[in-house]
Amino acid sequence: MTLCTTRQLVPTKELLQNALKGKYAVGAYNVNNMEILQAIVEAADELKAPLILQVSAGARKYASQAYLIKLVEAALNSSTIPIALHLDHGEDVEICKACIDGGFSSVMIDGSKHTFEENIAMTKKVVDYAHPRGISVEAELGRLAGVEDNISVSEKDAIYTNPREAKEFIERTGVDSLAIAIGTSHGAYKFKNEPKLDFERLEAIKAAISADYPLVLHGSSSVPEELVKICNDYGAQIPGAKGVPEFMFPEAIKRGIAKINIDTDLRLAFTGGIRKHFVENPGHFDPRQYLGPARAAVKELVKHKIQILGTDGKAAV
Ligand code: G3H
Ligand code: 13P
Ligand code: ZN
């Protein structure tokens, strides 16, 4: 299926190659509804930033692929920046094929919970289906989890991405980008103690693979204290939340990360906006009254992310 628009989606491969050359990262933002999509696209368009919109299986189930595709079509037609539409964490070959057939320009096949050989086999199947159609593929190797300081080296090796395996995986699958595990995790509770990422391992992975190969960092929300505070001040209970500190992103980008996945921070901004509005305006019950400020909060957040990742002004490059 092609999208009904004169502007076409771009494959993530193209965006990530530009990012590596330009020494910045492209933010990949999760989309679940119209307001979040509008906020992300308006922010990126205003800052002239290339953009990856990503849709999880959960988002497909919640909003339906047909609606999401039409919303993304509208986003393309109302912006000028390059946009990729990417499946986030596709768990099997079938969902990847359905997204490719439905008009996505990029898919992730996440075989990270399977054995190395099974992960290779399923990734290769998706690559063989996607590449002749001009679609990019991301895969994942290693498990996304924070590890305690007192964990043994062998336990850590079992969780984080192995550089030698990363090289073999890329060579045998031909996959366009690889998500790696170096200590990030999904959600709002990433670290019990001080935030720590294994940058040495990232350097070893980068050294093992080709210099112009793009790596992906999932679980990259920063869980900003001010956003958690707004949520908590207006009735939420999100104690002890902790994310990836912002100063770590330039460090990760320097070492070959070209795509940075952000979902939790969008959820916090959106939720904080709604909660604050409800508390301050108990008489309001028109959804536009509370979804509008929530959308504005997400837009402000995404503008900040774009600046942190160095993506601003890169749309024309
Ligand atoms: O990586 C997970 C993303 O945050 C998507 O989450 O499966 O709840 O849509 P979800
Ligand atoms: P966060 O939960 O840190 O936002 O990560 C999102 C993600 O990795 C989506 O694939
Ligand atoms: Zn993820």
Describe the structure concisely for a colleague:
The protein is α/β, with parallel strands linked by helices.
What would you note in describing this structure?
By secondary structure, this protein is an alpha/beta fold. It is 48% helix and 13% strand. It contains 13 helices and 8 strands. Strands 1-2-3-4-5-6-7-8 form an 8-stranded parallel β-barrel, surrounded by 10 helices. Helix 9 links the parallel strand 6 (177-180) and strand 7 (215-217). Helix 2 (34-46) runs parallel beside helix 4 (65-77) and helix 6 (116-130) packs parallel to helix 8 (163-173). The radius of gyration is 19 Å and the shape is globular. The structure holds glyceraldehyde-3-phosphate, 1,3-dihydroxyacetonephosphate (13P) and zinc ion (ZN). Glyceraldehyde-3-phosphate is lined by residues 30, 56, 58-59, 88-89, 186, 263.
Question: Which key phrases capture this entry?
Answer:
binds zinc ion; binds glyceraldehyde-3-phosphate; 8-stranded parallel β-barrel; 13 helices; single chain; 317 residues; 8 strands; binds 1,3-dihydroxyacetonephosphate; alpha/beta
Summarize the SSE layout with pairings.
Layout: H1 12-22, E1 26-30, H2 34-46, E2 51-56, H3 57-63, H4 65-77, E3 83-90, H5 93-102, E4 106-109, H6 116-130, E5 136-141, H7 153-159, H8 163-173, E6 177-180, H9 199-208, E7 215-217, H10 225-233, H11 248-254, E8 257-262, H12 264-280, H13 287-309
Parallel strand pairs: 1-2, 1-8, 2-3, 3-4, 4-5, 5-6, 6-7, 7-8
Bound molecules: glyceraldehyde-3-phosphate, 1,3-dihydroxyacetonephosphate and zinc ion (ZN).
Zinc ion is lined by residues 89, 186, 218-219, 261.
